[in-house]
């Protein structure tokens, strides 16, 4: 498929690099672009002359679509479509993103989220179709389609149904998170913009997957995201056990942020962000090879998103240091110091400084408590000792004639549970 890129900006220079990446991620070959600096044209988004230039470029390139890095309302889509050859689609930024999401959705949750976002996007267009139909314009073009007076009500019913199913999935995932936490796992989430290298970093850190492998080792979890230089490789969430000796840590990779997303799209993927909001620690991954101003903007947007509901500490990870020299890295560290006062610089691809990152994770996660339990020697005691071994780090176990003394470290919740289990044994226990 061949596409022409179009972008209008109020002032400055129109940067088409991201929309071009998005187009390629959706399977398009970009054959040209049209940009303009001016105020928005209510009818066409771009000016009349620029729209004619765009149409000529479409014919010359024999393009299948025009992709706008702007949000088009239904009437602009309709008017632009009338200027193009029959069969050429008019796609705006958000339609394109939804197309990519739809291609990448593998799990039931991801598929539902995509469907919800598409319906929320379609709802105002269904209303526009009604308006155009009343004017007897009968729109039959990409983005609107034929008018069906019952469509609005159908969309609203489908939105309600999908939200109910996503709520049920969210409840199940929350129960799973709590079970893991109760089992002694700390939860760490990878966050950041798409293509920052989160999936590559995760594959470097995961205990059960090589960087060059992608095996489905846990039937209850999604497969580890493949490491590819393309946008939206990870759409759902992926969880793996961290390669960590000192404590049990689960690491979750989440869908990447992308700039200028509308509220309705963010809302559709809110349950994915819950994995970030409910973590014990967030690793905010950025591509250090990006221009420093772009990194700054991404950090600001990420912080706004994370601090809205997140209470866990956030560690900034400057990834892809294999793509910059030491001088550039030092300059960017200094320039970003206000937003990232103590970042960790790593290369997920080459594994550089990964040990430093693991040490930082250990420092930032909630402190464990040390406990010494004296248990009576009963027939149920060994099951309690075994449970402590499974859920804590045991320093020493001493077996006496009448007592078993267990010295261990664990999360506070695990310490409380171990005391409760000890208290259920046949005679009162001493805690020292």
From TrEMBL:
What are the protein's UniProt keywords? Coiled coil, Cytoplasm, GTP-binding, Magnesium, Metal-binding, Nucleotide-binding
PROSITE patterns attached here? G_HFLX (PS51705)
| Residues the entry annotates as binding Mg(2+) | 199, 234
Task: Provide one Gene Ontology cellular component.
Answer: cytoplasm
Where is this protein localized, as stated in its record? Cytoplasm
Q: CDD domains given for it?
A: HflX
Which co-factor is required?
A: Mg(2+)
Q: Where is the Hflx-type G domain?
A: 186-369
Q: Which GO terms describe its molecular function?
A: GTP binding; GTPase activity; metal ion binding; ribosome binding
Superkingdom in the source lineage: Archaea
Show the InterPro entries listed in the entry.
G_HFLX_dom, GTP-bd, GTP-bd_M, GTPase_HflX, GTPase_HflX_N, GTPase_HflX_N_sf, P-loop_NTPase
**Coiled-coil intervals:** 102-182
- Pfam families cross-referenced by the UniProt entry: GTP-bdg_M, GTP-bdg_N, MMR_HSR1
Question: Which residues does the annotation say bind GTP?
Answer: 192-199, 253-256, 319-322, 347-349
UniProt function note: GTPase that associates with the 50S ribosomal subunit and may have a role during protein synthesis or ribosome biogenesis.
UniProt cross-references to HAMAP family, sorted A to Z = GTPase_HflX
Family affiliation: Belongs to the TRAFAC class OBG-HflX-like GTPase superfamily. HflX GTPase family.
Subunit and partners: Monomer. Associates with the 50S ribosomal subunit.
Name-wise, this protein is GTPase HflX
**Which species is listed as the source?**
Natronoarchaeum mannanilyticum
């Amino acid at each position: 498929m061949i596409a022409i890129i179009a972008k209008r900006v109020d002032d400055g220079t129109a940067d088409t690099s991201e929309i071009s990446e998005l187009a390629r991620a959706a399977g398009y070959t970009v054959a040209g672009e049209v940009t303009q600096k001016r105020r928005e044209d209510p009818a066409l988004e771009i000016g009349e002359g620029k729209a004619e230039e765009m149409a000529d470029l479409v014919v010359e390139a024999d393009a299948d679509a025009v992709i706008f890095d702007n949000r088009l309302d239904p009437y602009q889509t309709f008017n632009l479509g009338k200027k193009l050859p029959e069969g050429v689609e008019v796609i705006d930024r958000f339609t394109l993103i939804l197309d990519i999401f739809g291609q990448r959705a593998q799990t039931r949750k991801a598929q539902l989220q995509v469907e919800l976002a598409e319906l929320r996007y379609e709802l105002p267009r269904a209303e526009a179709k009604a308006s155009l139909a009343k004017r007897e314009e009968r729109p039959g073009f990409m983005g609107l389609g034929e008018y069906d007076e019952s469509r609005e009500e159908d969309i609203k019913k489908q939105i309600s149904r999908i939200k109910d199913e996503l709520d049920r999935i969210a409840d199940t995932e929350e129960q799973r998170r709590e079970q893991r936490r109760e089992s002694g796992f700390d939860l760490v989430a990878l966050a950041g913009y798409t293509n920052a290298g989160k999936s590559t970093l995760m594959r470097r850190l995961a205990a059960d997957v090589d960087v060059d492998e992608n095996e489905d080792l846990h039937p209850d979890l999604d497969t580890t995201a493949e490491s590819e230089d393309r946008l939206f490789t990870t759409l759902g969430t992926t969880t793996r056990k961290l390669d960590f000796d000192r404590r049990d840590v689960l690491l979750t990779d989440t869908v990447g942020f992308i700039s200028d997303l509308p509220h309705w799209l963010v809302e559709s993927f809110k349950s994915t962000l819950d994995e970030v909001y409910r973590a014990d620690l967030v690793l905010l991954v950025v591509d250090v090879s990006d221009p420093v101003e772009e990194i700054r903007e991404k950090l600001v947007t990420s912080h706004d998103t994370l601090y809205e509901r997140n209470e866990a500490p956030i560690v900034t990870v400057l990834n892809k240091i294999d793509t910059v020299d030491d001088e550039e890295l030092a300059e960017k560290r200094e320039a970003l110091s206000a937003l990232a006062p103590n970042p960790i610089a790593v290369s997920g691809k080459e594994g550089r400084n990964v040990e430093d990152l693991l040490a930082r994770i250990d420092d930032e996660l909630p402190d464990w408590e040390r406990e010494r339990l004296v248990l009576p020697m009963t027939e149920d005691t060994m099951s309690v000792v075994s449970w402590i071994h499974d859920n804590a780090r045991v320093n020493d176990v001493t077996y006496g004639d009448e007592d078993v003394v267990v010295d261990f470290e664990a999360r506070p919740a695990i310490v409380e549970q171990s005391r409760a289990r000890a208290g259920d044994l046949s005679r009162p226990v001493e805690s020292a």
